[in-house]
Amino acid sequence: MGSKTKTGLAATYLTVLAFLLIFVAFVTPCWLETDGKIPNPKFIRIGLWEVCFNDLKDTHHFYDTRFTGCWWVFEEEYYIIHDLLLPGFFVATQFFFTLCFTLLLVASFLTALYLCCSRHHDRFVLLLLVTGADLVLAAVAGTIAVIIFGARGDGRDWMPSWEHNNMSWSYALAVLGVLALYASGFLFLTEGRRHHKRRLREREGHTSEFGMQQRKGPATHTTI
Which residue ranges does the record annotate as region Disordered (predicted)? Predict the structure, then answer.
């Protein structure tokens, strides 16, 4: 790492930070949470993959089943309230944030390669550009996810007592992670562009030096 530039190291640290933030947001169940201002709320909290209820009954009253505790959102017993639990906007949020996390996993591997790769390697510039592009794509997917959830997550047509439901810390970490992805992605792209220009200058220098040697030609010696 000693041979890496400050820009490259900053991009690496931001990638690590983004991974931690996105990972925690991805696995924790606190994207939306009740504010605790009402007694015995039916809805407690929800993340991308887990939801917590307190004696929640089917909203259409077709069944007498009640749900209490924290469950996986795709639990078979939840088919009764499938339309409440998995509306289109929430499935879209899951899809785009999963895509964001998957691209980030790829970028993490590429970042590790960057730390091990010499800047003199033939594909070093390509590695920087691909890493940067991957991170920006992950950021775009994450942006779509947080915008969708931010616009619809606390709406009155989703969880019970919507006026007492607020975006929680998992969602905040997701937003911060997406911002870190943009920063790290653009820094890697900037670093790749810088190394590309440096190689072009070096090639031009070698070409001009070779041209001068060709014009001079071989040295001639005369004997008397």
Answer: 200-224
Distances (CA, A) of 30 to 43, 116, 168, 173: 12, 37, 6, 10
Report the run of H or E that residue 17 belongs to, with start and end.
helix 6-27
Query: What pTM did the predictor assign?
Result: 0.83
Please state, in angstroms and rounded to a whole number, the distance separating the CA atoms of residues 33 and 25. 14
What pLDDT does 97 receive?
98
Phi, psi (rounded to 5 degrees) for 219: -70, 140
pLDDT (tens digit, 9 = 90+) per residue, 24-49?
Answer: 999 999 999 998 888 888 889 999 99
Q: Where are the beta strands (DSSP E) in 13-112?
A: 32-34, 43-46, 50-57, 66-72
- For 9-35, letters b (16+ CB in 10 Å) and e give ebbbebbebbbebbbebbebbbbbbbe
Q: Is residue 224 very low, low, confident or very high in pLDDT (cuts 50, 70, 90)?
A: very low
Identify the bridge partners of residue 167 per DSSP, sorted by sequence position: 32
Are 21 and 173 in contact by the 8 Å Cβ rule? The answer is yes
DSSP-H helix ranges across 28-161: 82-85, 88-116, 124-152
Residue 56 CA: distances (Å) to CA of 49, 52, 59, 77, 114: 18, 10, 8, 13, 50
Q: Is 223 helix (H, G, I), strand (E, B) or coil?
A: coil
Among the residue ranges 7-11, 174-178, 207-211, the one predicted with the least confidence is 207-211
For residue 18, what is the enclosing H or E element? helix 6-27
- What class, spelled out in words, does domain 6-202 have in CATH? mainly alpha
